[in-house]
Structure formats: C-alpha cells, structure tokens
Design a protein that fits this description.
CATH class: Alpha Beta
Radius of gyration: 21 Å
CATH architecture: 3-Layer(aba) Sandwich
CATH topology: Rossmann fold
Shape: globular
Helix content: 25-40%
Distance between the termini: 58 Å
Number of domains: 1
Strand order of the largest sheet: 3-2-1-4-5-6-8
Largest sheet: 7 strands, parallel
Structural class: alpha/beta
Number of helices: 12
Strand content: 5-15%
CATH superfamily: NAD(P)-binding Rossmann-like Domain
Number of strands: 9
Order of helices and strands: EHEEHEHEHEHEHEHEHHHHH
Length: 303
C-alpha cells in the first residue's frame, strides 16, 4: 500500500507520516517545500496553486491523507479536481475542522466535506479540536517573548487535542479500513480554558505565562493591521466564535476507541515541549567589548 500525505511538513502531516511509517506503510510525503532531510521517505512537491504536479504525485497511490486548500479559499473546485486526478486512489482520510457544519458559508470547509462524500471513494472525515501544537507554532512568539497570549476566546473550555493522536487515528483509518463513511470528532481527554492551558505551559517552563481575553473586534483589527487578507480575518473570527459559543467544549472518546489508548493530556505535551516557552536569555557581550548603547527616548518607553 502507498499513501500520499498532503501537507506532510505541517502539524498533522508530520504525525501522519510518522504513524504510517511505524506501520511499515510506503509513504509519499507531499508539500510545497519538501523536507529532504527525512531519510527513507519519498518526498514530492505538491501545491494547490499548481495542478501540473498532481497527477505524478498521485500515481500508484492507494490511500490519500487530504488537507484542504486553506490558502486558496476562492477555488471551490480544487478538492474535486484533485480527487479526479487520483485515478488509483481508493481510500481518503480528510482533515476537516470541528464545527465545520455550522461555519459561515463563505468558509468552504463543509463544501470540501461534501465533495469528498460524493467522490465515490471510501472516505473518512476527521474533525479535530484545536491542536496543542498551536502553542509551539502559531502562538509561540508572544508566549516566549512576552509571557502572554491574547485571543478572543473568553473563558470557554476547549478540548484541545495532540496532533500525534490525530495522526494515529488517520493512519488507522487509512491502513486498517472499517472507517469508511464515518465522520470523527477528535478531542483530548478534557476541556479547559485558554487561561488554564497557558498556566499549564507556564508550569512546564517554570515561568508565569498569562492569557488575556480580547474583544472580537480588537482581534480582527489586529489581524488586519498585521496584513491578514479579509478572508483570513473572516475565518479566524468564525473559529473563535465557535469557541465562545461552546462548540469546542465537548469531549469525545474517539481517539481511544480507534487507537486503543487514551488521548495524550496537555500536561504531557507541555513537559515534552517546554523549551518553546522558556524566557529568552540576554546575549552576553564579548569579553572586553562594551556594547552598551544609551536608549533613545522612544526606546526607553518600551522598557
């Protein structure tokens, strides 16, 4: 069996590749920027914005791990076109989003799910909750440098999930079968607030980390000021609205039911990845060199 893993260098893609490889499955890792350092894994370049390489990437592939074209939101037919190019694909596992069915119609996640269900393939759709790994990637800079995370999440509990649990569920569905026609909501073992999650990261990193709730409009304004396009702002606003209305609170037993073991807790993740949130240490000057520069008035206000 050969499985093409799309987004193979992304949060879940790395986990899916690892889970498949550990089962002895032949993996073809597809991404816009292949990681050529990964020994024993066939690397292929694949980009949603360039269909010229799709057919060759999908040649002789039996299974497909499919991550949607999130950076190409205006191309509603991309999923259909990709599946049509994979003439030998028999089984597809698609990474969707928890709450996909209630997102605004301008966010095409539900349409992507529909296209997959109508493809004629044996399909499984995964709807995971927010990832632990966002704390080491999307949110790491302000946590590390300022000890602070600001998001419009209020005090709503979220059943965060580890991407390596997502990867193991995806690999099981791809390899073992018996999951065709199923839509799975994947969560961690408990629902906690962002404030509680950030405090747990701080415990692991032996420092005080804080969460502050943002007003939704202020959050949108910050995204816009940072250069985010309108569609990306709309997506983020909708996702945090799901959190505030309790859509991300339920806890499921799906990970354990499929993998045979409980989902990983946040505490284990925090201990494993604590180095990401350690307080930056100031660089020491070279011996005999005075690097002291008097701050300007504008600089001193920041200290």
């Amino acid at each position: 069996m050969t499985v093409l893993v799309m987004g193979a260098t992304g949060k879940t893609g790395v986990a899916v590749v690892e889970a498949l490889s550990s089962r002895g499955i032949e993996v073809r890792a597809a991404s816009r920027h292949p990681d050529l350092s990964r020994a024993g894994i066939e690397q292929v370049r694949m980009d949603w914005s360039d269909s010229s390489g799709w057919e060759s990437a999908l040649r002789d592939v039996d299974g497909l791990y499919l991550v949607g074209p999130y950076a190409e939101p205006d191309n509603a037919d991309l999923i259909r076109r990709l599946l049509a190019a994979g003439t030998g694909v028999q089984r597809v596992v698609h990474l969707s989003i928890i709450g996909a069915e209630v997102l605004p119609t301008g966010i095409p996640v539900a349409q992507w799910e529909l296209d997959i269900r109508e493809s004629g393939l044996e399909w499984t759709i995964l709807r995971p909750n927010w990832f632990f790994q966002n704390f080491e990637e999307s949110f790491v800079a302000t946590l590390r440098d300022q000890g602070l995370l600001e998001l419009p999440a209020a005090d709503a509990p979220i059943s965060f999930v580890d991407t390596f649990d997502v990867g193991e569920v995806a690999a099981t569905a791809l390899v073992e079968g018996g999951h065709g026609g199923r839509t799975y909501t994947l969560t961690g073992p408990e629902a906690i607030t962002y404030a509680e999650a950030v405090a747990e990261l701080g415990r692991a990193a032996s420092r005080d980390l804080r969460f502050t709730d943002l007003a939704p409009q202020e959050f949108a304004d910050r995204l816009t000021a940072g250069g985010a396009p309108p569609w990306a702002v709309e997506w983020q606003e909708a996702l945090f609205e799901l959190i505030r209305t309790g859509q991300n609170t339920p806890v499921t037993d799906t990970v354990e039911a499929i993998t045979g073991r409980p989902p990983r807790p946040l505490s284990a993740y925090a201990d494993r990845q604590a180095h990401h949130w350690l307080k930056p240490q100031p660089e020491l000057p070279e011996a005999g060199v005075d690097r002291t520069i008097p701050p300007s008035p504008s600089q001193s206000k920041l200290n």
